[in-house]
Amino acid sequence: MTTLTQPALSSLIDRLFAEADAAEETRWPAAADDRADYRRYYGELRDQPLPVSRATGTLLYMLARSIRARSIVEFGTSFAISTLHLAAALRDNGGGRLIGSEFEPSKIARARANLAAGGLSDLVEIREGDALETLARDLPETIDFVLLDGAKMLYPAILALLEGRLRGGALVVADNADASPEYVARVRSAANGYVSVPFADDVELSMRL
Ligand SMILES: C[S@@+](CC[C@H](N)C(=O)[O-])C[C@H]1O[C@@H](n2cnc3c(N)ncnc32)[C@H](O)[C@@H]1O
């Protein structure tokens, strides 16, 4: 039995994914087309959980377990469905710290409630505000694992904030990275210090050299 497969947590995650499936039948706002516009876009989606897929959630748990991650940073927390998977991995790795980031206050409240319901609040700090600011300071000395799942156009800028702290062998998972060609080009160039592959349809999986 793992933390992820404990009945209380797995039924919470099942319920949150089912609610997300139902919510996604609503209309999508016009896409954000420049950096000034992403706040409006996500503001219009404030009631939408927008989680990673079920398979990606399980993958996050597996990857964080397999590298024995203790220090995780997440760009884009939303209702904390991905966070529950990553914090479960921290628990099973013997503890650690996950720094999340989210700028929609109502989402932060729901994320905290979900983490409390999952018994994982003690492992997670959610930083409130734009991640360009909140992840620019007070980072752990080393970072083992990063999930990029906020505004896609910011992936290169957020990676740049974290890059100096990534340990050799650190993993970076970027959800829907194909929406940021600049990011994909950056991590696929060995000269930039990564090995990187597209993975499981919608994820770019990169390892820091
Ligand atoms: C796709 S959802 C994240 C889903 C979450 N990772 C999960 O799987 O449960 C993206 C979230 O990132 C937030 N976001 C986007 N850009 C952000 C930024 N610059 N700073 C903080 N939060 C941001 C949005 O409000 C939204 O809730």
List the helices and strands and how they pair.
Elements: H1 7-23, H2 38-44, H3 54-66, E1 71-75, H4 81-92, E2 97-102, H5 105-117, E3 124-128, H6 131-134, E4 143-148, H7 155-162, E5 166-175, H8 181-188, E6 194-199, E7 203-208
Parallel strand pairs: 1-2, 1-4, 2-3, 4-5
Antiparallel strand pairs: 5-7, 6-7
Helix pairs in contact: 3-4
This protein binds S-adenosylmethionine.
Structure explained in plain terms:
This protein has helices spanning 7-23, 38-44, 54-66, 81-92, 105-117, 131-134, 155-162, 181-188; strands at 71-75, 97-102, 124-128, 143-148, 166-175, 194-199, 203-208. It has 209 residues and is an alpha/beta fold. Strands 3-2-1-4-5-7-6 form a seven-stranded mixed sheet, sandwiched between helices. The longest helix has 17 residues, at 7-23. The protein starts with 6 loop residues before the first helix and ends with a strand. Bound molecules: S-adenosylmethionine. S-adenosylmethionine (SAM) binds next to α2, α4, β2 and α6.
What distinguishing features does this structure have?
globular, 209 residues, alpha/beta, binds S-adenosylmethionine, 8 helices, 39% helix, seven-stranded mixed sheet, 7 strands
The main sheet comes to: 7 strands, mixed
- Assembly category: single chain
Strands ordered across the widest β-sheet? 3-2-1-4-5-7-6
Ions, cofactors and other ligands present here are:
S-adenosylmethionine
Number of helices: 8
Overall radius of gyration: 16 Å
Topology order in helix (H) and strand (E) letters: HHHEHEHEHEHEHEE
Distance between the termini: 33 Å
Total strands: 7
